[in-house]
Records
---
Amino acid sequence: MSIVLRASLLDFTADPSHVTGAVRFIDDGLVAIDNGRIAACGEYAALTPTLSPGQRIDDWRGCIITPGFIDTHLHLPQIDVIASPAAGLLQWLERHTFPAEAAFADAQVCSDAATFFLDELARQGTTSACVFGTVHAQSVQALFEQALARDVRLVAGKCLMDSHAPANLRDTAEGGVQDSADLAAHWHGRGRLGYAITPRFAATSSRRQLELIGELAHARPDLLIQSHVAENLDEVRWIADLFPEARSYLDVYDRYGLLRDGAVYAHCIHLDAVDRQRMAQSRSLASVCASSNLFLGSGLFDFDAALDAGMALSLGTDVGGGQSFSMFAAMRSTHEVARLRGQAVSALQLWYWATQGAARALGWSARVGTLAAGAEADLIVIDPAATPLLARRTAQLRHAECVEELLFALLVLADDRAVRETFIGGRPAKSTLPAARKPS
Ligand code: GUN
Ligand code: ZN
């Protein structure tokens, strides 16, 4: 059964940080979906004659179809930590985050949270994500079970943390790594799922655990890795005390072989030039979590230094340090952080990092983040007139000549109301959410 959609189309053919004309915008376009994949994509006038006679066309004219968003950093157990103020990261972890994560010792809590979490991603137009569970293997188990049933392209890992955490949230060096290896053996590569080895951050792993994590990473070069780095100055000083042998915070991970293609490091604010070189050389991916950084007062990411060093960038909401699941909000906060730094990032760069840039860095470039034929049909339908203000502000902008202005207006003004539909593997995933689970 084919689904055929008519709308404006937007995606990227290259990285707009390096190439001009990297964006493709088709005013009157058509996307055909077959068997979960994009079968054809292009101008409506050119493609309609190729459709089977009688093929229904869903008319989304006035809307824009783009690849779904990819959120490269957020936490399943922190849904209820959103909007919890604290005087900085370390106090926030202790007061709000660790107590909330302790509740995930209960399997039902894990399963309920996974349902809400996946619903919310679909509502916001996020079709892929890199997710931290808790220390409990069952948190990730619950998320993977439901993500598999929904056919979501999703990466997750249980937190490895055997030190500097409450006793009920600690694993052991051996036990934590064994659990990770078992979860990876069971879930990695099933459906569209990927496993990420997930040391929470350097402070919560002993040297022994980091050593074992390094061994697992070495034995499984196919797995992803995710962690936090250089988020907050108190944290950076703490890591320097804990690991005096390391040149820098990032160097702790480097010493254990944890920088590589497919490694995602959240924040990357307080890095130096050598760190940025190492991120770029090792092809590790930075997840810029601007909304979280503003909320917790962690610091301002240095875009110019990161891009000059050749680092790959993507965007994370960092729920619940971040206050929203919306990647529009993540892009808006990223713009604001750049401005506070005296720098500028364009709407095209932001949109690219939120879609194809992340896909490329995660090794998924032909699969998602693009409307190219053959890609998996993870798409969203965005209504640029979803609210009266959006309608007014974008009225003159909805065509190819104004694409950059249009994207900027959207990332500043849009939220989940502008996501009219989310297709995951070619199936509508937003309009089909059970009514009972829709927020009233
Ligand atoms: N560093 C270690 N754990 C966390 C976490 O849960 N959130 C954020 N933002 N930073 C961290
Ligand atoms: Zn985080």
---
Amino acid sequence: MGKIIDGKAIATALQDRLREQIAYFSMTVGRKPKLAVIMVGEDPASTIYVRNKIRACEAVGVNSEAYRLAESTEQSYLEELVRKLNEDRSVDGILVQLPLPSHLNSKKIITLIDPKKDVDGFSEVNLGSLLLDDKKGLYSCTPLGIIQLIRSTGVELAGKHAVVVGRSNEVGKPIALMLLQHNCTVTICHSKTMDLASYTRTADILVVAVGKSKLVTGDMVKEGAIVIDVGINRDAEGKLCGDVDFASVMPKAGYITPVPGGVGPMTIAMLMANTLKAAKGNV
Ligand code: NDP
């Protein structure tokens, strides 16, 4: 029977440590770190994520500034706002909540964010830093959180076969690179992978970041594997569920993250860590 990796508890402990570090930063520098959060439109999931991020800022002692813009916001207005925040010395981190409405060019907006303030780690510069293992960069929060969750098991990562399902720039690719940096042998699977189960069954560490309810079932998992479920989906009854079928995978896994209460809280904790890192680089 798999042990549950309690992401909520691990995130709370991390936030407690961050609160102390942020208090020390604020005392020595004479101001709190500041995060600007931009949201365009009223996507229900994004509204919840932004609210949780603002709450996390309050909990750890980061000043936040929320820009909730109308769905009809024009590209030029958004670009101007990002430029203004880039130049504002009092702002340490800038986060543009994705997805943006379809008439806006997300890639252009993300590229415009000063890489030193890109606390989501989505910009080309920061993705490049991760590729080159340059520790000065700001790395994507969800993969950073996943590494902490895996490390919390105490299992040695070096030499393990890690299988990542999903290859997005935000989750799949960066977590694959981080696992490689931790000396795992990494396989990346995606929608064109043939016979997905033949790969997942060989995983000592299985990270699933797809966005399809219960895609991975018990018969696809190796006995004793560490299973990290990144997905956030709604099942037929409207209940939150992951990409992993918890009921059938739990008895086989060595460790498993629940949804909710696994990767999600860690993502937000790592956002706070990135904001502190950005603030330290902006004094
Ligand atoms: P994307 O939609 O950007 O990427 C999904 C990936 O899954 C793609 O690479 C796609 O392959 C692959 N895929 C799709 N169908 C299959 C399949 N049947 N078999 C194998 N691979 C498949 O999603 P994200 O990476 O942004 O997010 C993934 C999930 O994680 C979502 O549910 C999202 O909500 C959640 N999420 C959760 C976070 C958290 O904090 N807990 C943070 C970020 C995301 P291809 O490239 O070939 O299209």
